[in-house]
Amino acid sequence: MSSKISLTRYLVEQQRQEGHIPSQLRLLLEVVARSCKSISHAVNKGALGGVLGTAETENIQGEIQKKLDIISNEVLIEANEWGGHLAAMASEEMEGIYLVPNRYPQGEYLLLFDPLDGSSNIDVNVSIGTIFSVLKKPEGQPGVTEEDFLQAGVKQVAAGYCIYGPQTTLVLTVGDGVAMFTLDREQGSFVLTQENLQIPPDTKEFAINMSNMRHWAPPIKRYVDECLAGKEGPRGKDFNMRWIASMVADVHRILTRGGIFMYPWDKREPDKPGKLRLLYEANPMGWIVEQAGGAITNGKDRVLDIQPSKLHERVSVILGSKNEVERVTRYHAEAG
Ligand SMILES: O=P(O)(O)OC[C@H]1O[C@](O)(COP(=O)(O)O)[C@@H](O)[C@@H]1O
Ligand SMILES: [Mg+2]
Ligand SMILES: [Mg+2]
């Protein structure tokens, strides 16, 4: 790239030329990006910053929190409660919604996030990330309630993630394709490094936690069995497998070179639709994937059309290269 375009300049251009980003949303996204930069610094310090290890507390999902889960949550809350033009926030790490202090006029937006995705990888120095989704606060009433957050993924006005890996990279959509920004540590700013990302429709790479194979539903087993059969099987080609156990890292790979990612329903906890959370994991990642020409379903329906019924709702996720996602979804339909 000949001239460096910062995230700020990119957003200003989008606002001016395309009319996609109202100024309040632009400022909000800049605050989120600044928070991700702080989290990235904390991740980089690792043991030197005292951020590794477990905090000995549980979140609402019954998961033991890591120190970095809590630190990242605090960074996002503190930065956005004063600077983000928000009415309220919701997070994987908080049971209820977080109302920003009263101000006039009240912020128009709702921010949802998974402050630290891939927690099991924190202490082993493997890529982790932050996922975020922005909704508009429904009009017509002064306060904010949890119901205001229960909007289908198609209503998102911005979505993104930041991956803390060998590079810190922020990926963003406001509904006009997907753009990628790399953190320039010397300058301290995110610089545009790719625009209009496209996921190839076909792939030879799948991502699923294979240790759960015995618990899967038949359509998932059928799909993976066919991949494993390789050239000699019905697909007539060999497949490769990757499972990083950080959704951000698996999705980032798929955005870069294609692939399919699955965290489906399984028999371990039959009453749960899946492991991943609809509002702050599946919906933002799903919108990014769709904006890059990919697809996301829960095996049956498009995830972005699901009407949520609770804040921490879980969902089965099949996302990535379009033809592969359609195949897995068809296998579910054929199995009834
Ligand atoms: O350890 P498992 O069961 O393979 O689960 C891995 C999945 O869990 C997650 O880590 C869940 O996210 P959190 O770390 O935010 O709870 C995903 O990022 C990842 O895809
Ligand atoms: Mg997560
Ligand atoms: Mg998390």
UniProtKB/TrEMBL annotation:
<dbReference type="GO" id="GO:0006094">
    <property type="term" value="P:gluconeogenesis"/>
</dbReference>
<feature type="binding site">
    <location>
        <position position="114"/>
    </location>
    <ligand>
        <name>Mg(2+) 1</name>
    </ligand>
</feature>
<dbReference type="InterPro" id="IPR044015">
    <property type="entry name" value="FBPase_C_dom"/>
</dbReference>
<feature type="domain" description="Fructose-1-6-bisphosphatase class 1 C-terminal">
    <location>
        <begin position="199"/>
        <end position="332"/>
    </location>
</feature>
<feature type="binding site">
    <location>
        <position position="114"/>
    </location>
    <ligand>
        <name>Mg(2+) 2</name>
    </ligand>
</feature>
<keyword id="KW-0119">Carbohydrate metabolism</keyword>
<keyword id="KW-0963">Cytoplasm</keyword>
<protein>
    <recommendedName>
        <fullName>Fructose-1,6-bisphosphatase class 1</fullName>
        <ecNumber>3.1.3.11</ecNumber>
    </recommendedName>
</protein>
<feature type="domain" description="Fructose-1-6-bisphosphatase class I N-terminal">
    <location>
        <begin position="6"/>
        <end position="195"/>
    </location>
</feature>
<comment type="pathway">
    <text>Carbohydrate biosynthesis; Calvin cycle.</text>
</comment>
<dbReference type="GO" id="GO:0006002">
    <property type="term" value="P:fructose 6-phosphate metabolic process"/>
</dbReference>
<comment type="similarity">
    <text>Belongs to the FBPase class 1 family.</text>
</comment>
<dbReference type="Pfam" id="PF00316">
    <property type="entry name" value="FBPase"/>
</dbReference>
<dbReference type="InterPro" id="IPR033391">
    <property type="entry name" value="FBPase_N"/>
</dbReference>
<feature type="binding site">
    <location>
        <position position="92"/>
    </location>
    <ligand>
        <name>Mg(2+) 1</name>
    </ligand>
</feature>
<dbReference type="GO" id="GO:0030388">
    <property type="term" value="P:fructose 1,6-bisphosphate metabolic process"/>
</dbReference>
<feature type="binding site">
    <location>
        <begin position="117"/>
        <end position="120"/>
    </location>
    <ligand>
        <name>substrate</name>
    </ligand>
</feature>
<dbReference type="GO" id="GO:0005829">
    <property type="term" value="C:cytosol"/>
</dbReference>
<keyword id="KW-0460">Magnesium</keyword>
<dbReference type="InterPro" id="IPR028343">
    <property type="entry name" value="FBPtase"/>
</dbReference>
<dbReference type="GO" id="GO:0005986">
    <property type="term" value="P:sucrose biosynthetic process"/>
</dbReference>
<dbReference type="GO" id="GO:0006000">
    <property type="term" value="P:fructose metabolic process"/>
</dbReference>
<feature type="binding site">
    <location>
        <position position="209"/>
    </location>
    <ligand>
        <name>substrate</name>
    </ligand>
</feature>
<keyword id="KW-0378">Hydrolase</keyword>
<dbReference type="GO" id="GO:0042132">
    <property type="term" value="F:fructose 1,6-bisphosphate 1-phosphatase activity"/>
</dbReference>
<feature type="binding site">
    <location>
        <position position="275"/>
    </location>
    <ligand>
        <name>substrate</name>
    </ligand>
</feature>
<comment type="subunit">
    <text>Homotetramer.</text>
</comment>
<dbReference type="GO" id="GO:0000287">
    <property type="term" value="F:magnesium ion binding"/>
</dbReference>
<feature type="binding site">
    <location>
        <position position="116"/>
    </location>
    <ligand>
        <name>Mg(2+) 1</name>
    </ligand>
</feature>
<dbReference type="InterPro" id="IPR020548">
    <property type="entry name" value="Fructose_bisphosphatase_AS"/>
</dbReference>
<dbReference type="Pfam" id="PF18913">
    <property type="entry name" value="FBPase_C"/>
</dbReference>
<feature type="binding site">
    <location>
        <position position="117"/>
    </location>
    <ligand>
        <name>Mg(2+) 2</name>
    </ligand>
</feature>
<dbReference type="InterPro" id="IPR000146">
    <property type="entry name" value="FBPase_class-1"/>
</dbReference>
<feature type="binding site">
    <location>
        <position position="281"/>
    </location>
    <ligand>
        <name>Mg(2+) 2</name>
    </ligand>
</feature>
<keyword id="KW-0479">Metal-binding</keyword>
